[in-house]
Design brief:
The chain has 561 residues and is α+β, with helices and mostly antiparallel strands. The protein folds into three domains: 286 residues, Bira Bifunctional Protein, Domain 2 (BirA Bifunctional Protein, domain 2); 124 residues, YbaK protein (Alpha-Beta Complex); 94 residues, Rossmann fold, CATH 3.40.50.800. It is built from 15 helices and 33 strands. Strands 3, 7, 8, 9, 10, 11, 12, 23 and 26 form a nine-stranded mixed β-sheet that branches. A hairpin with a 5-residue loop joins strand 32 and strand 33. The two termini are 22 Å apart. The structure holds one RNA strand of 77 nucleotides.
RNA sequence: CGGGGCGUAGCGCAGUCCGGUAGCGCACACGGUUCGGGACCGUGGGGUCGAAGGUUCAAAUCCUUUCGCCCCGACCA
């Protein structure tokens, strides 16, 4: 490809509304343009990168026996109504009506439609197992699209779905997918880890996420360096650092106008870890008192798994329900109320609200002064200890680049996707679903590999294998040498971009670094007179001069390793 | 959905407080000099100042409404 013919609108300056490195560089490098919030156009370079990724996805999916198909993006409401997700999912689903006033939605994912297909055609255990996948557009009306291509309202996803007769079959397909994902990320050159995750709205009991470590990520994972425990902090269990047991007598303390743990802690000069943080939550059934240690915080998702939907009580609700202002509520004596407490409060003696205006109580002990249901509900933090082996956990920020779910029979039961087993018994198909976002892989690859001058693509994702840079387009010798090398490289099926623009060398160098093709071949007048060209590594900036006759071989050996 | 910020030429910005009819850099076009890390000189084109309404002799600037975009939070397969 000739640079002069290709649409590569590079930008000298970063757009003011971009923050993440991948966002800035994809725009500056002419890879993408934004149409509206969360809607991106992939320009030729960007589309080539996605093409590289989807090619890898197809190879690895095909290799585990998955079959590529393609499903509509426009879905009739009925199918989603049958699984209950038409109502379970809120504003995040794009909904519309056709001319006959029939309800439709735009597909956020394809469990429903895949299962619908299976329900129509799968009859017998002999038809199973099956794995179907597609690389296709999803639409979600995200509350907050952000970070360029990382969180968008429309995006391409590789989604596969496995159909099995039993749990063993599902286990097998789940494992095959996990292994394929490992190969995919390795081939794409992104650093990643597999962690336990919350299945959330997908339902089913078991799922993992694949995470690319990056400060630009939106998720956090807790990792144990010793035993390898790895989980999204949404569900990671951890043991907070223990505190010395204080043998306090129960006593009320006057704490005028001191309401938060921080305020009372400073006022009494006692570490926040010796407090019980006490929050009133309103659930559908009843108000619930939620307790964590003063230095910890409640994790909404962990709590949601126990009490379902809930919200913090308003100030006036606290007063109505507990009869005391929010700053002074405590667990003591609240026998006829549901209390959920974090297990780290079982031991020790604590300070909390006295249920009396401007007073706190010191010396509160579990199972004496209050009685609770014990659940891990605190947010796992750096410095907490592993619940499995006791080693110190680290917490890292990550980009979610894939997930795998064991769905079980949730969708097949709802949509009557059933088969007859060997004994003629009707059973629901056992399903799994598996997603990967190619644009997120591309963004993660950039977040993990860039410098001040631009992108540094892993070879497997780069839009071209090499960039040829003839410096002076007015020098016949340069142009002839470049054209010859260009032809020869193409004959070797090496993807080559030749910057044949009649521009100053500086501009070409800057653009080349920005675009980030891993190998640059520089043809300068002086070197050519000695029969030499330069081969430069974008990442290390190391340059070797080689004889032009040997350039082809050298480049070939670079691009194949 | 709550909080904050920003909408002025393709991009980055100034001008808004204090009203007087729009400017800078880059990019673009043409001419010339240049040519190994985003050159220089000259000439030139390009803007309903996000939109609507209002105040005023006069609005990018003041007031009201509205739309869009970004960031933080909530939410999120």
């Amino acid at each position: 490809m000739r640079f002069s013919k290709m649409f590569i609108p590079t930008l000298r300056e970063a757009p003011s509304d971009a923050e993440a490195a991948s966002h800035i560089l994809m725009i500056r490098g002419g890879y993408v343009r934004q149409l509206a919030a969360g809607l991106y156009i992939f320009l030729p370079l960007g589309w080539r990168v996605l093409g590289k990724i989807t090619a890898i996805l197809k190879e690895e999916m095909d290799a585990i026996g998955a079959q590529e198909i393609s499903m509509p993006v426009l879905h009739p409401a009925e199918v989603w109504q049958q699984t209950g997700r038409w109502t379970a999912i809120g504003a995040e689903m794009f909904r519309l009506k056709d001319r006959n006033d029939r309800d439709f939605c735009l597909g956020m994912t394809h469990e429903e439609i895949m299962t619908w297909m299976a329900s129509r055609e799968i009859r017998s255990y002999r038809d199973l197992p099956q794995t179907w996948y597609q690389i296709q557009t999803k639409l979600r009306d995200e509350a907050r699209p952000k970070s360029g291509v990382l969180r968008t309202r429309e995006f391409i996803m590789k989604d596969s779905y496995s159909f099995d007769t039993d749990e063993q079959g599902l286990d097998h397909n789940y494992r095959l997918h996990a292994e394929a994902y490992h190969r995919i990320y390795n081939r794409c050159g992104v650093k990643f880890m597999q962690v336990e995750s919350d299945p959330g709205m997908m339902g089913g009991g078991y799922s993992h996420e694949f995470m690319a470590p990056s400060p630009a990520g939106e998720d956090e994972v807790a990792l144990c360096p010793k035993c390898g425990y790895a989980a999204n902090v949404e569900l990671a269990s951890s043991v907070p650092p223990s505190i010395a047991d204080e043998d306090w007598q129960t006593e009320e303390l006057h704490t005028p106008e001191k309401r938060t743990v921080g305020e009372v802690s400073r006022f009494l000069k006692v570490d926040p870890a010796y407090f019980i943080k006490c929050v009133l939550m309103i659930t559908e059934k009843e108000p619930v008192l939620v307790l964590v240690r003063g230095d910890q915080e409640v994790h909404e998702k962990k709590l949601a798994r126990i009490v379902d939907s809930h919200r913090p009580a308003q100030k006036n609700e606290v007063k109505d329900i507990l009869g005391i202002e929010a700053g002074f509520i405590g667990p003591m004596g609240r026998r006829n109320m549901k209390i959920i407490a974090d297990p780290c409060l079982k031991q020790g003696s604590y300070i909390s609200g006295a249920n009396r205006q401007h007073y706190h109580v010191k010396g509160i002990k579990a199972d004496r002064d209050f009685f609770a249901e014990w659940h891990d509900i605190h947010i796992a933090r750096q410095g907490d200890f592993c619940a499995v082996c006791g080693a110190e956990l680290t917490v890292e920020r990550v980009i979610e680049i894939g997930n795998i779910f064991k769905l079980g029979t949730k969708y097949s039961a709802a949509l009557k996707a059933v088969f007859l087993d060997e004994n003629g018994n009707e059973k629901p198909i056992v399903m799994g679903s598996y997603g990967i976002g190619p644009a997120r892989i591309a963004a993660a690859a950039i977040e993990q590999n860039y410098d001040k001058d631009g992108i540094i693509w892993p070879r497997s994702l780069a839009p071209f294998d090499i960039e040829l840079i003839p410096l002076n387009m007015n020098d016949t010798a340069t142009v002839e040498a470049a054209e010859r090398l260009y032809r020869e490289l193409q004959q070797q099926h090496i993807d080559v971009l030749m910057d044949d623009r009649d521009l100053r060398p500086g501009v070409k160098f800057k653009d080349a670094d920005l675009i980030g093709i891993p190998t640059q071949v520089i043809l300068g007048e002086k070197n050519l007179r000695e029969g030499l060209v330069e081969i430069k590594n974008r990442k290390t900036r190391e340059t070797v001069k080689v004889n032009i006759e040997k350039a082809l071989d050298t480049i070939c050996s670079l691009t194949t390793t």
